[in-house]
Request: fold
Amino acid sequence: MILSRNPDICAAELDGEVCLFNPESAEYLNLNTTGSWIWNLLEAPIDLDGLVQALQERFEVDPATCRLETQRFVDQALQKGMLAATQMT
Amino acid sequence: MTPWLRWPAKVLAYAFFVGLDHTTWILIRVLPGRTLMGLARRRPWCCLRLRLGSSSQLRWRRLISWVLRVRCRRAGWGSTCLSRSLSGRVLLDLIGVANELHLGMSRFSDGRRVPHAWLSDPVTQRLFTPGLTPGAGVPLTQF
Reply:
C-alpha cells in the first residue's frame, strides 16, 4: 500500500509543527513534532515500510513499537482523509 | 442623508448585523462542516445580489465596513471570527463587493493553537475583519 498526501489538504508549518485543514469536511488538525516529521516524509509517496525505516533513522525506537505507532497514525490520518492510499498492482 | 438621520441609521444597521451574526453563529453550531464549507464556497445568496450604482455601492460598502469593524471590536457571547466573517461575506456579496474568506491557524502566547477566519478585499488586500497577528499564525486557505 503506497501512502501519499491528499492533494486537497491545505497544510502550513507553524513553529515546526504542521497544521492541516481538510476543506472537504472543514476539519483542522494540529500535528505534533513526530506527526509533522511523518507529514514531511510523505512529500513523495512512500509505503509503510519505507516510512518506518526513515523514522528509525531519525528517532531511537525499536522496530515493533515504531511500526505499531506509525500504523496507528496512518490509520487515523486515512480515516480523517488527510492521507490517500493506493494499492500496489 | 441628513446628519440627524445618520446616527439612527447606523444604530439600526448595527442592530441588524448583530442579529445576522447571532443567526450565523447558531447555523455554524447546527450545520455540519461539509454543508457550511459548501455554502461558503458556492454562495447561493449571490442570486439575490442588488444592482447598485457605484456611488450607492460605495456608501453601502462604507456602512458595512464600519459595522464589521465595530462588531469585531465589541463582540461578546454568541459571535466568533467565523460567524462575523461569514455574515460580512453575505452582506458584501449582496451589494456586489468582492471579498475573500481566509482560514488559518493562530497561536496564542500560551502556545494554544486556535483556528481563525477573516475577511479581506482580494484587490487591495485590506482587511474587513481582523486577521492574524504577524508571526503568530499561518494562513491555510482562502477562497
